[in-house]
Model the fold of this input.
Amino acid sequence: MKAYFLRRLLLIPLTLVGITLLVFAIQRLAPGGVMEQQVTQLVAGEGGGRGSRESAGASIRVAQLMEVEEKYRRDRGVWRAYLEWLGVLPGDLEKQGAEFAEDAETVDIAMPGTVYQVRVDREGGVVDLLDARRGEPVDAGLADEMLNGWEVRLRSPQEQARSWKRWMPKLPMGEVPETRAVLFRPGRDGLLQGSLGRSEKYQDPVMSMIASRMPVSLFFGGVSMVLIYGVCLPLGIAKAVRHRTWFDNLSSLAVFAGYAIPGYALGALLVVYFGAQLGWFPLGGFPGDDFDRLGPAGKVGDVLHHGVLPLACYLVGSFAFMTMMMKNNLMENLAADYVRTATAKGVPYRTAVFRHAFRNSIIPVATTFGNNVTILVAGSILIERVFDINGFGLLQFSAILERDEPLIMGVLFVSALLMLVGNVLSDLCVALVDPRVSYD
Done:
């Protein structure tokens, strides 16, 4: 069994590479991505509805398109960009570009984050480092220190023309571009280095954004799992033992009514009725704005006050599924020959239920435990949207809506990792509850 689980764990990195590569390529190759949106905005901004698309294209400088392409890292191929995201190959940690003027032998490029400019010749060599405030060269010692780690690459007019044709195939290029020099600082800053990049929308590290949302999702996911397994399993056992009684019928009516109502729809109703009309609960947010100023008892009350309605929406659908799964599995095993044989030999009915039928009935439930690990953290996107809860689910929604590619890749990696680990946990749970499973 150890060898089996070791193989499963070793397959997780390879599977993650396949999942992330597929989504990364789709983001890059599918039409309507972030680059296409930026190009559309560029054309609309220049055209402004005052002329044709051809006139708008003629007014757009090639340098503008190159700046957008470099900002969203489209100056690299899909494979190269993905390997940079992984951290296998060095990427551009910072960069800034500028075009040579006609017949000019040098061009000055602003060094990102500093007050200096780098003078570059047409061969891609660094000529001097200038103080932009005074327009004078700095001393050689400071120049060597500041330029350490920086490099220059040139983008030829032919390369820029290919980029124009790629992003604006129907618009004429208004000018013949000059050679473009790009000042950049290379370095590995990818997944293998423990980094998921920076959000293009918020300019914050993706890892810190995910970590800040985790406690909220862990709270709702953890409490939901405890309540689901703590209530649904005993309820399913009671329904199976008391099949077709008034208790079974009434509880079935309740759980199926809850299953028929989507969590986000129930959330909207709860917010309107209990939040807006009655004022019993807040309209959204978790926790309250003054949470940090409260004492221990006040914090517990604030969490309960803000968490009751979202928890009800989290639980409403899962209750029916888990309860009926437990009931149906137990009823099937209670009708099996081995249970009837045990009771015929004088084994008490309670013992036959809990020592014989229950363990076999819990096996299908154990297979779903690993899948709940993803829900434990990811939560529900729509429920968090309704209640304005800054959890991991809402972060996924915002990333997709804003087409924030580094953030999308970050939340995808975490979700996929949890899913794969959950699958291994499901196999482990099955092996623990079913002695017939050995995985040898």
About this structure: The chain has two domains: 60-193, 206-433. Residues 60-193 form one domain. Residues 210 and 414 are 9 Å apart (CA to CA).
